[in-house]
## 1
Amino acid sequence: MRVVIFGPQGAGKGTQAQRIAQKTGAEHISTGDLVRAEIKSDSELGQKIQEYNDRGDLVPDEIIIEMAKPYLAQTDAWLLDGFPRNEAQAKALDDALGDLGFGLDAAIAMEAPDDALVERLSGRRASESTGRIYHVEHDPPPEDDPGPFTQRNDDTEEAIRHRLEIYHEQTEPLKDYYDERGILVSVDATKSIPEVTEEVLRAVGEDG
Ligand code: AP5
């Protein structure tokens, strides 16, 4: 299973990728997590990309492509969350997979209107100990997750709106890109978290 999952900020890409990975054993590769880990390490690269992340801008293509590439060959079952985000990245991904001798099985587009997304993101919390994503109302942390639970630097209303603009301008056209290649599957991301998981599992042929 080699699948990309994309959609507007807050559609639930990370939430679903974590759940599908847990249910299928596939690897969850999140370029957002890679970016945040690099920033947290305070490396030279981390310092360089922090301003892009905090503003809600895309990290330059050449940097993010080099960050993502090594993970593609590590296992034969993965969900790529947050990459590609524009046509240049989609082509770089096709090239990298071509070099490795395989292709994508599906590109999942999570569909949800912008209005629902700002509310979801402002209630988002991530566990620093487990990396799990929660929502204060829709998906509160269970008692066995010790936390602490933190908000992301880019979950300010200004950065969220900016990220959504970039999504519509640069990432949404990937629907046509993958549709033309016959691997696009659209999923209604406004449903409850478990319902969306069922839809995604069906889309990747893992619904038992
Ligand atoms: P990234 O971490 O990928 O952030 P994003 O794209 O802004 O997406 P989000 O994580 O905000 O949304 P999500 O869809 O994963 O939502 P989630 O599941 O958390 O990227 C961060 C930054 O890194 C970028 O801005 C950029 O700077 C850089 N970057 C990363 N990749 C890059 C690339 N390829 N190129 C260049 N730069 C890159 O859910 C959100 C909330 O909603 C949660 O609280 C969740 O509990 C809740 N929720 C989820 N589903 C539901 C549901 N069905 N019902 C109710 N609530 C729900």
Note: The chain has one domain: 2-203.
## 2
Amino acid sequence: MAADDATVTDETDPALDSVPSGKEWDSELYSIATDQFTRAATLLELDPEFRTRLGEPRRSLVVNFPVRMDSGEVLGLTGYRVQHTLTMGPTKGGFRYGPDVSLGECSALAMWMTWKCALLGLPYGGAKGGVRCTPSQLSLGELERLTRRYAAELIPVIGPDRDIPAPDMATGEREMAWFMDTYSQMMGHSVFEIVTGKPVTLGGTVGRREATGLGVVYVLEAVCERINLELREARIAIQGFGNVGAVAARELYAIGARVVAVSDRSAGLVDPDGLDIAAIERWVAGHEALTGYPDAQETGPADVLEVECEIVVPAALERQITEDNAPRLKCELVIEAANGPTTTEADVILRERGILVVPDVLANAGGVTVSYFEWVQDHQRYSWDELDVQERLRRQLRAAFARVTDAADRLGTDWRTAALSVAIERVSEAARLRGIYP
Ligand code: NAD
């Protein structure tokens, strides 16, 4: 329909005025993502054409499907897959399981994936997906049936050169193996490159499991060099002790940094002299949660963000640093290992307080970067060794950080807006060159 026709229709049919345009994606997280996009787009004086083309996801799939429980009952579940831009190549992004997973949440996370891939120079647009469920209440068999059905439901929109899922919260190598097997069964042959984050014996890459946490440390090293902070002498507090937080804690502990606080959803642990991360990992291996660990002071899960230290690493959930606790943070630097951990209001407070923020699209980009390495290796049918993976990861993250600081200097802005600006410039240039079909 031509633009003029649309205007006429709106004017002549008042009922259509009540249909809110673009509200499909509404969620608190999506507002944070669009606030960040708007700030960078305004600074860049981005052409309205690209604001429209990049401001909302290109494609979304919502599926309702049944899963048979062990009891014989049937549970109805809702799953999502959102592809933010199709301009840069296939789309890439994880899928998560959780009680709050929604279209709005996936849309925000898909948009951030676009910026992350563009900032890192990876040939992907952003995507994200998930299933709204409570994974801790599901048995192994129920989780497997859920994952296989979700994979089957996504077949119309995914493919090794269309959209390549990966792990996110509450999903990991096990789910990727089920996902890959389901897709392969449907295609009639093994398609390793349909997901990344797989077990190494199934076409996964060495170093993927640790990539996000390790990447956080590589970025942190580069940041500390830039701001003259001695990382090995810094006190660090980490919220979240899962795939990302525990690996970051282990790597920081290994290089001699003082990790003074960690938390998971069960508890926070604090020791101003530094925690014994190796002992804590052994505790978690035996007890599955931090709570009860005897050799540290126990606090609430969110309290670790307010511990006195130089570096805070939110590595758990979104929207953890808010206007409520941002005034109480006692650090010099926040490095966002989680996606979207800082609300728009908190971002302003941190900026005003002079606390530096390393944005998620850079800080946790190690995961998607090594996912890209895995996909390349799968396509090549050739495996790299761990050193190769780590060196390339370090190089790519450092180059991305240099792009961010260059843009921050050029545009006179903070690192988040600079990172998004680099990404938006890249994607909008690609969109301009491709033009509009037909
Ligand atoms: P995970 O499920 O492995 O771990 C999450 C951790 O957070 C767990 O330790 C959990 O107990 C803890 N947690 C949950 N609620 C909490 C609360 N209220 N307070 C304190 N801790 C709490 O997930 P993950 O893969 O480590 O992902 C963490 C974050 O990193 C997410 O935002 C995710 O999107 C992001 N991320 C992950 C990857 C990856 O490769 N896994 C890549 C990029 C970004």
Note: The pocket of nicotinamide-adenine-dinucleotide is lined by residues 167-170, 212, 239-245, 263-265, 301-302, 315-317, 337-339, 364, 367 (CB under 6 Å).
## 3
Amino acid sequence: MNGSRESVSSYFGCQVFSEAVMRERLPKNIFRALKDTIDDGKPLDPSIANVVANAMKDWAIEKGATHFCHWFQPMTEMTAEKHESFISPTSEGRTIMEFSGKELIQGEPDASSFPSGGLRSTFEARGYTAWDCTSPVFVKENGPTITLYIPSAFCSYNGQALDKKTPLLRSMDLLNKHAMRVLRALGNVTSKRVIPTLGAEQEYFLVDRSFVDKRLDLVLTGRTLFGAPPPKGQELEDHYYSAIHERVAAFMNELNMELWKLGVSARTQHNEVAPAQYELAPVFATVNVATDHNQLTMETMQKVALRHNFVCLLHEKPFAGVNGSGKHNNWSLSTDDGINLLDPGTTPHENEVFLIFLCAVIRAVDKYSKLLRSSVAVAGNDHRLGANEAPPAIISVFLGDQLTDILEQLAAGGAKTSKTNGKLKLGVSTLPPLPMDCTDRNRTSPFAFTGNKFEFRMVGSSQSPAGPTFILNTIVADVLSEIADELESNGDVNKKAQEILQKIAKEHMRIVFNGDNYSEEWVREAEKRGLPNIRNTVDSLNTMLDPDATAVFERHKVFCKEEWHARYEILMERYCKAINIEALTTLNMAKRLILPAAIKYSGIVANAANAVQSAGSYSDTLKKSLDQVCQLIDSLQQNIASLENATQKASSVEGVAKQGEIYRDLVISAMNAVRKDADKLEMLVDAEIWPLPTYAEMIFLR
Ligand code: ADP
Ligand code: MG
């Protein structure tokens, strides 16, 4: 399993129980039955489980595995696993290695310590994991132990979803159902399934571990809670796409190898805008597999970084003053026979199927923009959205010139032409003329059409892509179900399709915006158009409780009301806990590191002033420095006391909604006040005494 300089194809996916491995190791009829479930969504036949489990076990043991685990995605944005060995003692005091179909299909971890939002009390500990055969099983090394990983869904004793995979799978089924209805109504008789696809670009920071070890804030919260701005930031724009530093390249090389072995098709890598910031993008896959792969990517990044004495930071905003990190969810719909339903082709105005699916997405995003916004509402993202580095908190859709023009034509009665683009001539005889895309890119849009897919750019770097994806799947499916209802009713299909397109174009043009999303004018313009601008996590999560938000999930059985409301509880509680940990860490560092350093420094200056005086002289500078340091020490002390009060108040309040408001309104500003004094002190106090690595060190030294 060591793929140093071997050709990638010789080891790509070597740790995966892939289709090729299954075909080789499973009896033909069993392989077919399993493939029917994986490809066509047919129910899994439990009677084949024993044979499959046995083949998996033999394969895993050949790879050195001693353990297996159900690998699932509780509501923590991360994954969970409980390992069991294959060992089964015999009566003669020996052991054989066993793995039954039942163990493959179902696990029963004690679930009491996972967030459930009240769906399960701690004394009702039972939870179940269920094998998701649509995402491949794999083996992974954890130190010396090799374990067989079984991607699984996770639910309560009553079958209520406690994870991110269950609703994702439910939403895929739903989308398939209504997209197929639309396709059939429009005359497609060949496709059998519609599958949402996802390519999740992942941004991250790498910081030398020696610095991180000295920063409790990075260790506990993933972001710096203190730090004066460095003399240089990202203003020279000299990091974006620059040559990759050797130490970072070595990290990326090992990361790619690890991911490739796991079958994750890591493809692009580059330096991002902020110093010390990077990006990885895989080749897209079904949303289910892509989500599992993104979870593996985040985990592997952190693991491999440590081997290179880096720490990989996945927080949305590790450093104030430079860009934060996002996850760009590229999403599209494809059929089992290879049609990308969001591919406009060369004459999109004539491409009825494309226009129907495009308009379905546009209507869904406008109709449910608050819901979509709530899917990216996490504490870390509040530093990004609307901060002129990431899309604003206002949701709009970028379509580009060609499609906007077609939509305008549709609204006016019907689309007759598609704007085309010629060749790009570079004015150099030796350079070939390049074909021009029909639309430019727009980096500022939160939801941009990018040729044959949409790119949802608001997702936070630390988030599981599952949440935003099952919401997008569900709202698009909801609109497709309306469209299917109309198309299936009596009358001429093409006429009805044109009416639907015209209606959507007229009604939802307001969500289309091709200009600069970072500008102040857009904020004003969006308000005029009646588009919501929900600026923080608390306000956004509150919209989850709107009746129409709950109704869309209930209607399509992606969630029952209790499940959806439990998610609200969990997410709001997570917000409160995240801010609480930041506040306590701020207090800890301010009291134990920063205040003592400032006091020590004031003593040094005071001694120097005394010494100068005893020597019969006087220094105005010394006097002023001392005054300045002492004033800041007093102010810091007062702000520490205020933060202590605010934190206490927040934690003593009942109910997550109220608590969230106090954390947002009182605790965060109290934390900022402490930081302000501390950062001023950093610029005064002798660098030898300052207890924390600085911004310049952390983001520029590697
Ligand atoms: P850019 O920098 O232009 O956003 P990247 O190459 O960094 O481009 O990322 C684009 C992502 O979109 C990749 O992960 C790619 O696999 C993905 N992608 C391409 N086509 C589709 C599709 N049909 N469905 C989902 N994702 C797609
Ligand atoms: Mg990119």
Note: The two ends are 29 Å apart (CA to CA).
## 4
Amino acid sequence: MIERTLVLIKPDGVQRGLVGEIISRFERCGLKIVGMKMVFADEKLAGDHYAADEAWMISVGKKQKESYAKKGIEVKETELELGSKVRDYLIKYISMSPIIALVIEGHNAIAHVRKIVGPTSPHDAQPGTIRGDFSFDSYQLADSSKRPIQNLIHASENRKEAEREINVWFTDKEIHDWKRIDEDLLYRKGK
Ligand code: GDP
Ligand code: MG
């Protein structure tokens, strides 16, 4: 199934000079860049991206609670309270300096990009993933520093999220139909 997904290289990835490193990981597995630009987002655009969606905020809070629970730490705030606080952090973070926005296309692109990126906390991310290779940040370090986990990348989690987020960052004209030279091989059909 050919899909499109939104990837943002967040301010820490751009500021640390990791843009080329990161993009090459998506390119080299055969995925195709169909949109790309540098954006210095204001808080309005950042808030459109990290929309005040209750279900998403609860899912963010849930992941945090699970990560703390694994370490035997109990968190008192509700999932929604945690998620809402993280959203405020995120809006400031992704509007603090320019980011790179990409639309990436290919077979199962949404799940495949998430696999290359790794789990939310770099502390939990395996070496070989972008978050595991380029950061050691964790829920504990980020929360105690009153900022979001600096994990280099945003990548859409599912089709609905991808469609909505691509529309936040890109117009139709900024997304291009083109063919990679290796596509005939990558999508080859046997006789
Ligand atoms: P992702 O899809 O893996 O990026 O993770 P989420 O959608 O759950 O969260 C969005 C972003 O919020 C993450 O990439 C982190 O930068 C940040 N974040 C998520 N959960 C927490 C948390 O519990 N604490 C802090 N400080 N930041 C978080
Ligand atoms: Mg997410």
Note: The chain is about 45% helix and 15% strand.
